[in-house]
Specification:
By secondary structure, this protein is mostly beta strands. Helices cover 0% and strands 50% of the residues.
């Protein structure tokens, strides 16, 4: 038998939008743009490997609103 190394697991970054009236565009690590138009849960399409850093930013604010992000950066630690 040959032991096989398990692949480095990957996870998605997401969160919850509240109070949105319009369209906001978020980015993860200055890429992976995500356009959001409704309140609720969201998740970026690109997954990241355990141990990878992430940094969420707002690319485009909604008209007449200023959004902010809590817990916008960190390191992937074995969960979404």
């Amino acid at each position: 038998n040959t032991a096989q190394a398990s692949p480095n697991p990957s996870y998605t970054i997401g969160g919850t939008i509240t109070g949105l009236s319009g369209t906001v565009i978020l980015q993860n690590n200055l890429t992976d743009n995500l356009t959001i138009t409704t309140n609720g849960n969201f998740s970026f399409s690109n997954s990241l490997n355990t141990g990878t850093t992430y940094s969420i930013s707002i690319l485009t604010q909604p008209n007449s609103q200023t959004c902010s992000i809590t817990n916008s950066s960190g390191v992937i630690a074995n969960n979404n």
